Amino acid sequence: MVARTGLYAVLAANVAVVGFFFTQAGFASNTLIVLGRLTGLYGALLMAFQLLLVARLPWLDRRIGMDRLTSWHRWTGFGILWTLLSHAVFITFGYAESSSLDPVNQLVDLAETVEGVLRAVVALGIILVVGAVSGRFARRRLAYETWHFIHLYTYVAVVLAFTHQVAAGTTFTSSSVAKTYWYGVWGVALASVFVGRLVLPLWRNWRHQLRVTAVVPEADNVVSIHMTGKDLDRMPAQAGQFFLWRFLTRDRWWQANPFSLSAAPDGRTLRLTAKAAGDGSAALRHVKVGTRVFAEGPYGAFTAMHRTRPESLLIAGGVGVTPIRALLEELHGHAVVIYRVATDRDAVLYDELRDLAHAKGAELYLVTGPVSPDKLAPEELVKLVPDVADRDVFLCGPPPMMNAVLGSLRELGVPKQQIHFERFSLAG
């Protein structure tokens, strides 16, 4: 909550500062041009904020969570799209109003005669393409790697837009203080991305040098990968978190897959357990012992750090049991574990979970059967856990199940701050 409030406060403060510098620079006589300059400034501010959201800074990620940051990133992206599109329209029509040119020729004239405008046009074109492929219709039809590659061009748009603003923006050309402030905002944003997305992952992998030590089939379509490395006791990983894993083989080094830790980090080894849901995860069964691993992370706020009550309820669905199993190992206090699967055969890691629950004094319920009727409906859930409203609830599973359980928890009056879940979605 503190991190979220702080992030909102930083954004609000910068909105006010940008508004102040905009006012100090004076207004144009044409209302459309005034609106165009203002939307351009706030669109660029949103771009800087967007960089902070995607920087994957550990302090923010552990407190806010990758899910929420990804959701904010998505909506901020559409905010950038509409503010910068409005900027281009307002500016073009504003200047066309005071000239004899139609809007199209006016835009061409601005691109040819005003420094930085052509760069801004190219940047807007890139943002329009990225916005189009980020829509749900297109996103569902693109492989993650393709979507991610196209998304990388956003950084080109960021550089082009920034150089356009400092070259042509009257707010910054008329005030050295405003220009210094703008360089500071963008310097912090770009440095955050550089450190969080490049320096930190490279440094951690150089330090820990992960290698595969065992590949263990858990079921027909589920496999566990065990890894070891150097100084793993100094890796800041917690139960419930996930990494982006790259197995450095000739045919897989370019693929990054998000998988949770399926056992609490012990300072010596790491383990992931994955279900064959696509080509990438299916190929894990064939990874060789000794393969080098490049791991980005740890990520996520699905940890014991956010507990608010001494007792807990852990609900897992399918292979969503992996972070739940790791959390049970780390949590203290009485815990109830509910594992929802279609059949007994689908209960991956159940033997481990049963032994761990026995050792921790936890209650374990294996709930099997078809989706309908809902065996985790409010009346069923409260039969298993009568004091559910007095517990922290950790939830992980397929999206339909998670949505249904979240509805049940709300109906049972479980306070929002006691419900913890993460969908492990990197593309919104």
UniProtKB/TrEMBL annotation:
A molecular function GO annotation: metal ion binding
Gene Ontology CC annotation, any one: membrane
Topological category with respect to the lipid bilayer: Multi-pass membrane protein
Spans traversing the lipid bilayer: 7-27, 33-54, 75-96, 116-138, 150-168, 180-200
Keyword Transcription regulation: no
Source species, domain of life: Bacteria
Classification via InterPro entries: FAD-bd_8, FAD-bd_FR_type, Fe3_Rdtase_TM_dom, FNR_nucleotide-bd, MRET, OxRdtase_FAD/NAD-bd, Riboflavin_synthase-like_b-brl
Cofactor: FAD
Pfam families on file: FAD_binding_8 (PF08022), Ferric_reduct (PF01794), NAD_binding_1 (PF00175)
Domain FAD-binding FR-type: 205-305
Protein name, UniProt field: Oxidoreductase
Lineage of the species this protein comes from: Bacteria, Bacillati, Actinomycetota, Actinomycetes, Kitasatosporales
